[in-house]
Amino acid sequence: MPTDRLTESLLMFWRELHLLSNPVEQGEITAQQYWLLRQLNLRGRSSIGELATALGISQSSTTTACKRLERDGLVLRERCADDERIVRVSLTETGKAQVEQWRLRRREMLAHFLEPLAQTERDELQRVIDHVLDAAGVTGPRRPVEH
Predict the structure, then answer these.
(1) Is this structure's pTM higher than 0.85?
(2) What are 89-95's contacts with CB under 8 Å, separation 24+?
(3) What's the confidence (pLDDT) of residue 100?
């Protein structure tokens, strides 16, 4: 069935992109730390409890991960002035830069994979991907997002 071959090819493409661009696969950081940094990047300043809930892990695991990330200069942990039991975590400038660097690496790797395509092939691929996304009900920007 042609769809099976296409599905397998797309999965192979995704796996290769993931292996080459993901900081966890590259041994730069643990998966838990990576997802914690991504959550902070998306949510902004958050409590340990909020992060633990979002990641589906215990608060003690979240605390341990945050302490390591703080030691590495990627996050800042601060006790809440109103309730010292609550610890809030935010990305440092170094942490923000690291997350952005990983995002850029993934985009650069994807661009590298697309380099061999002629412009007409890129246009056709874009048309097909847009059609698939529309059919799946995926919404959002279809143009490059500037950061």
Answers:
(1) no
(2) 89/40, 89/45, 89/46, 89/47, 89/48, 89/51, 90/40, 90/44, 90/45, 90/46, 91/37, 91/40, 91/41, 95/37, 95/40, 95/69
(3) 95
